[in-house]
Write a structure and sequence with these properties.
The protein has about 200 residues and is mainly alpha-helical. It contains 7 helices and 2 strands; from the N terminus they run ββααααααα. The chain folds into 3 domains: about 40 residues, no CATH class; about 90 residues; about 45 residues, no CATH class. Strands 1-2 form a two-stranded antiparallel sheet. α2 packs antiparallel against α5. The longest helix has about 35 residues. The N and C termini lie far apart (about 60 Å).
Length: about 200
């Protein structure tokens, strides 16, 4: 399939598309009306902002693929998470099986980190551009993905546990405070076990 770059957001899209699916830019006709089409699309104001691009970018910043799920792109988020897990697995296997000098292990770790960083940056920019495209009408929005609530639940649980651990010394009789000693004991056990003590 032939691809062409969007002059506004630089994302690649199919050559036969009339509008960019990421930012909503309307491509001009082959007779040279590109500039006119750009000016027309830029002057249009959306009737309603369906997706907030900054919220989409923040979601992907906090959890890979979350911004895609915020935009209703379930498979895109799954692909991004799968790619990051694949890079982690390949990096871990490389460090486990290639028992060479510390320089080689450092190179493998650095390559793994750069790969994950690249996917993270792509996830943020893709979520931002897709949200803009939805607001401009170039991309269809079908509602938030059902997977959107998974990272939200994980973050809520993590924040709740942190608040509980921090607040227990101040309010020892608060509900749920009985859980903190178990967390502390488990942490001490695993620390001693790792150290071989």
């Amino acid at each position: 399939m032939e691809l062409k770059p969007c002059p506004e957001c630089s994302q690649l899209t199919a050559a036969d598309n009339d509008a960019c699916p990421y930012c909503g830019h309307i491509f001009g006709k082959p007779d040279g009306n590109e500039r006119h089409a750009t000016r027309t699309s830029g002057s249009r104001k959306p009737k309603m902002e369906l997706r907030n691009p900054l919220v989409a970018a923040l979601c992907s910043f906090l959890f890979l693929g979350w911004g895609q799920w915020y935009n209703g792109r379930t498979l895109d988020g799954i692909y991004i998470i799968s790619a990051s897990v694949g890079i982690l697995v390949v990096g871990a296997l490389g460090m486990f099986f290639i028992k060479s000098s510390s320089l080689v292990l450092t190179v493998i770790a650095a390559a793994t980190g750069l790969g994950l960083l690249g996917i993270w940056v792509y996830s943020i920019s893709n979520a931002y551009n897709t949200a803009r495209g939805i607001n401009r009408g170039g991309t269809r929005f079908t509602g938030k993905s059902i997977l959107f609530w998974m990272p939200a639940t994980l973050w809520a649980m993590a924040i709740g546990v942190i608040i509980l651990i921090v607040a227990t010394p101040v309010y020892p009789d608060m509900p749920g405070a009985w859980m903190v000693p178990y967390f502390t004991r488990a942490e001490s056990y695993f620390s001693l076990d790792i150290l071989g003590l």
